[in-house]
């Protein structure tokens, strides 16, 4: 890379963000100045993550580009969850459940809903491949029910939890379904996950610029991972300040997890909205549903392995209100994806469900 490239914002920001993370991580408390610096670098890391994800996506093409961003974010998110669970605390028993459910609500209602609304406002009608979106949604529904709904009704152990044998089954099923989905998305039925025109045919590439070289792609991939580590790490560093702000306005402490989940998923949200602006709604849905699938398919197996040495209970079962929200989200999502096209109305409905989730998180 040339000196000019090394001094560009998309290289300097991830490096500065990692430096700030190294400085702030060991500290027990941050002053107001450091909190502001971390917040600025966190926003910068989000923007650079989106930039480098698009560079990689341009090189490898869709749907591989969406898969790279979704998996990268989720792997780091899983590492953060396991780390927090190992450190213990009062909320450790429900941390995985709350994080996964927040990720499902944010991706299926927030990311998808915002992309649908923005795309419909710009073009009047958004088009996507119902076969690909339907397959992804079916996987989300199955994984969500298997890992978050069933534990609320099983009777092998007390509480909304799985027995060790049940947890192993859920973990294996999650891995198998995730692997099959990735194979379907990238190999067997790759065309199901490509952007389509209003006639249902695969849309031509909208970017006529020369694809990046191998070295540029490798550099962007490394910087993407660095930026995502910085996003998750700085979000964790900011959590005490976020927690103080949440307490100051009278919200329950569990809402801190929702805020952090929104920060972690911000790169995918921006990427999905930018894709919808370019009339590539299928890419937006790939990011939304793919992130939800990865969040469940990678987190549950990791938690199952970590439970070997983790102390304390692991509560995965949702409450009654959350189950209703999950069921309603799946029903509405089915009605959205089956026609293969959507208007601003569908986007608004999904955003209303996200608003309901956020409101009930504040007022359980």
UniProtKB/TrEMBL annotation:
Pfam family name, one: Na_Ca_ex
One Gene Ontology MF term: sodium:proton antiporter activity
Keyword flag Cell cycle: no
Keywords from the UniProt entry: Membrane, Transmembrane, Transmembrane helix
Residue intervals passing through the bilayer: 7-25, 31-52, 64-88, 100-121, 133-153, 165-183, 218-235, 241-266, 287-310, 316-338, 345-362
Membrane topology note: Multi-pass membrane protein
GO cellular component, one term: plasma membrane
Main location: membrane
Domain of life of the organism encoding this protein: Bacteria
Lineage: Bacteria, Bacillati, Actinomycetota, Actinomycetes, Pseudonocardiales
Location(s), subcellular: Membrane
Stated name of the protein: Ionic transporter y4hA
Keyword Transmembrane tagged: yes
PANTHER family: SODIUM-POTASSIUM/PROTON ANTIPORTER CHAA (PTHR37958), SODIUM-POTASSIUM_PROTON ANTIPORTER CHAA (PTHR37958:SF1)
InterPro entries: Alkaline_pH_Ca-Antiporter, NaCa_Exmemb
């Amino acid at each position: 890379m040339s000196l000019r490239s090394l001094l560009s914002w998309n290289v300097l920001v991830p490096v500065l963000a990692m430096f700030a993370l190294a400085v702030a991580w060991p500290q027990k408390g941050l002053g107001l100045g450091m909190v502001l610096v971390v917040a600025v670098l966190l926003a910068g890391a989000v923007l650079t993550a989106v930039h480098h994800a698009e560079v990689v996506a341009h090189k490898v093409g869709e749907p591989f580009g969406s898969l790279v961003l979704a998996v990268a974010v989720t792997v780091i998110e899983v590492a953060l969850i396991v780390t927090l669970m190992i450190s213990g605390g009062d909320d450790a028993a429900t941390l995985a459940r709350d994080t996964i459910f927040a990720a499902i609500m944010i991706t299926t209602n927030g990311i998808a809903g915002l992309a649908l609304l923005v795309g419909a406002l710009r073009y009047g009608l958004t088009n996507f491949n119902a076969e690909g979106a339907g397959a992804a949604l079916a996987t989300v529904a199955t994984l969500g029910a298997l890992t978050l709904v069933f534990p609320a009704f099983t009777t092998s152990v007390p509480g909304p939890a799985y027995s060790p044998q049940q947890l192993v089954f859920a973990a294996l099923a999650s891995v198998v379904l995730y692997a099959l989905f990735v194979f379907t998305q990238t190999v067997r039925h790759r065309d199901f996950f490509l952007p389509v025109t209003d006639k249902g045919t695969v849309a031509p590439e909208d970017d006529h610029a020369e694809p990046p070289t191998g070295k540029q792609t490798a550099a962007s991939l490394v910087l993407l991972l660095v930026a995502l580590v910085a996003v998750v790490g700085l979000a964790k560093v900011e959590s005490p300040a976020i927690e103080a702000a949440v307490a100051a306005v009278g919200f329950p402490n569990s809402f801190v997890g929702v805020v952090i989940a929104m920060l972690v998923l911000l790169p995918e949200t921006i990427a999905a909205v930018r894709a919808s602006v370019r009339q590539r709604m299928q890419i937006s849905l790939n990011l939304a549903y793919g992130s939800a699938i990865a969040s469940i398919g990678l987190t549950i197996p990791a938690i199952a392995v970590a439970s070997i040495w983790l102390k304390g209970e692991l509560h995965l079962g949702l409450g009654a209100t959350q189950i209703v929200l999950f069921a309603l989200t799946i029903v509405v999502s089915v009605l959205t994806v089956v026609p293969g096209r959507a208007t601003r109305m569908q986007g608004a409905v999904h955003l209303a469900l996200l608003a309901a989730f956020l409101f009930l998180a504040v007022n359980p």
